Amino acid sequence: MRDVQGPADAGQRSGPEKIVFAAFAEDEGQVLEAAILAESLRSFGGSLSGAPLWVYVPEKLPASAPDPIQRLGSFGARIRTSSAPAEALEYFYGSKVFGAARAEADAEGKAGILAWLDCDTVIGREPREFLLAGGTVL
Q1: Cα separation of 13 and 58, whole Å?
Q2: Which helix or strand (DSSP H or E) is residue 54 part of?
Q3: What pLDDT was estimated at residue 9?
Q4: At 102, phi and psi to the nearest 5?
């Protein structure tokens, strides 16, 4: 995993984030959908509008889709690459599953809550329902 693009202060927070939102974008079209997700989070997320958004993409995608990647990054999303074994790519959601696993590993110790979203999610109001009571495990 490597960060492709992200905010200048990414990763420099002194303690864990309350919540981190994350998604996986398989192709250029899904990166554009994730940009809508990012814009809606920043516009309608209320107290969570500044929460980190990590978007995982296949390793080769940033080079093949620089404009959508730049648009997504313009909303403060941290674009990260993830990879999946060749065998997993035979399954429809194979890459997404490995992206989610990478997000869980990356969030360990850095976020109290990791909210995994589909890249086509649109935030219409503050998503405070994600802020679960302490000790809640789903």
Answers
A1: 26
A2: strand 53-58
A3: 44
A4: -65, -40
